[in-house]
Each structure stands twice: as structure tokens, then as C-alpha cells.
Amino acid sequence: MEQTPLQRQLTAPSRRPTALDAFRRARADFLAGNRVDLQSLAAHLGVSRVTLYRWVGTRDQLLVEVIWSLTEQTLRQEWDRLAAEPGPRVPELMVRLLRTIWDQPGARRFLEQENDLAMRLLTLKTHGFQPRLLDLLRDKLSEDLEEGRIATTIPLDDLAYTVLRVTESFHYLPTITGEPADPDRAARVLAALLPSPGHCP
Fold first, then answer.
1. What is the pLDDT of residue 199?
2. Which distant-in-sequence residues (6+ apart) come within 8 Å of 172 by Cβ?
3. What pLDDT, in 10s, does the model give residues 113-134?
4. b vs e for 131-147, b when ≥16 Cβ sit within 10 Å of the residue's Cβ?
5. Interatomic CA distance for residues 159 and 27, integer angstroms
6. Angle ∠(201,82,29) on CA atoms, nearest 5
7. How far apart are CA 16 and CA 36, in angstroms?
8. Cα 10 to Cα 6: distance, rounded to the nearest angstrom
9. Burial class (CB in 10 A: 0-12, 13-18, 19+), 96
């Protein structure tokens, strides 16, 4: 008797792993606070390190993609939650991002144990994370400006760059000054930088 498609799929060998499987496993490891290690990842997937490198590039490249996926998800979720809030939303958005990062055990472990690497990967244009974050931030600032939530004479590109650098400066305090990261200080500075029209000096 001929098997049905379901029976054939149930009895067929397991599907071969793909680059997306590698990404998903690396993301799960990151969130769990485990070091993302390409050798261990290749062994888990049952592929050679050469294959894995071809799929995801270097460890640095894989980390950037994992962290960007989590960052973008957080920013879009928090932006949706801020939709009904009055006044400038971007300051609160960036502060919520910082707090989410430090409250997430895996992200916190990465920043505490590999802060220098994090700062290099996530703040330099060459690694691809920074341009994407800057573009997303520029879009959100543009929305706040168009809706009259922010009053400023600073050009949009300069404003996005400045907001990001202020946010990062308090995020990477452990590497820059040896102090703990401080989202509250970032909140105060961003609120002063991005006042609502009724609170302009």
C-alpha cells in the first residue's frame, strides 16, 4: 500500500540543518547566558566548522545578527506600547531598551564578561549593527517630529546620531569609566535633549 505524504515525512530522515537553525540555536544560547561558540554550535548541529563558517561567518558576525534581532524586536515592541503616551517617545524608548538589555540574563552576562567586544561590535559602522540601529532611531525620531511631540532645531541626522551616542555613553560606562551602566542618567539627558514643544527653554 502506498504511503501518504504524512507517513513518508514521519518516516523520512530528519531534515538537514540550515543557517537559520544555527542562528536560532545561537540566539537561544545567548539568551540563556551561554557563550556563543562556533565549535560547540557546529557539533550540536552535526555539521563541520567549515560549513558553519560558510553559513554564518565569524563569531563576531553571528553575534551581531543575534543581538540585532533582539534589539529590533525590543524597540518595535516598546514603540508599540508607547503609541498612546503623550510627549516625546524616543527618550523613553531608548531607556526601556537599556533596561531590557540589563534585565535579560544572557545579554547582561555578555556585557559583563565581554563588554569591550560588545562596544566594538555594536558601536562601529563596519560591523553592521550601528547603521541599522541608527536608521531605526532616525525613523522613530522622524515620527515624533512629524507628530509635534519634539521641539528642536537640530537636523534629523544629527539628532539621531546624538541620541544614539548619549544612549551608548551610559550603556558602556563599565568599559569607558568603570562605573555601572546607568539608564536613569541617560533618561535625564535624553529628556533635556528632546523636549516637548511646551517645555522648550
1. 60
2. 115, 118, 119, 123, 181
3. 998 899 899 999 999 999 999 9
4. eebbebbbebbeebbee
5. 31
6. 120
7. 21
8. 6
9. buried
Q: What is residue 130's predicted lDDT score, i.e. its pLDDT?
A: 95
Residues belonging to the chain: 201
Q: State pTM to two decimals.
A: 0.87
SS3 labels along the chain: CCCCHHHHHHHCCCCCCCHHHHHHHHHHHHHCCCCCCHHHHHHHHCCCHHHHHHHHCCHHHHHHHHHHHHHHHHHHHHHHHCCCCCCCCHHHHHHHHHHHHHHCHHHHHHHHHCHHHHHHHHHCHHHCHHHHHHHHHHHHHHHHHHCCCCCCCCCHHHHHHHHHHHHHHHHCHHHHCCCCCCHHHHHHHHHHHCCCHHHCC
Three cell numbers written together for 175: 568599559
> What span, in angstroms and rounded, lies between the C-alpha atoms of 50 and 114?
25
Cα distance between the two ends of the chain: 83
> Is there a contact between 61 and 68 (Cβ–Cβ < 8 Å)?
no
Q: Compute CA 3 distance to the chain's CA centroid, rounded to the nearest angstrom.
A: 46
